Amino acid sequence: MQIAIAALGSEPSPELEEKARRFVRTLTKCSNQTFILGGYWGLMRTVTDEALSLGNKVVAVIPEGTEHVIMPNEVIRIDSGCDPRCRSVIIARSGDIMVSLGGEAGTMTEILMAYAMGKTVYVLTGTGQSSDRLNVAFPDKIDQRGLGEVIYVDEPEKIGAAICKRYYGKDL
Question: Cα–Cα distance between 60 and 90 in angstroms, integer?
């Protein structure tokens, strides 16, 4: 399964880093994944490092101007040639589902894009980031069309367990 990850691009708190690691560890218990992220910095770096350490695959779709960032050799790197918003389209389109682990405008843009593309989006709440406010603004659905499904979850392990149950038929 290809899982698009929407995550903070700046330095995360130690608590948020630990939540991201807990999500990756839980999800990897049922199956190895391919994680699709937008770079190798901020919370995306934490997710990448944890995912690789557990034998998952990682694809980094990086925006123009970040080609100098050195990544682990195991990362499949795509130099998109796009600005960050254009790059977000590629990330949202490429995932079978999306998981948001907390972030700001870029993270919320990716959540809305994935929703508009008809994807299921799991949004971690309680991250201390602006994306926490989405469940206040859109508690039931993003708009009247109901194109995708947005599921707000307060614990990273619950997201991993829900994905394992729904897509792999495995209880954790």
Answer: 11
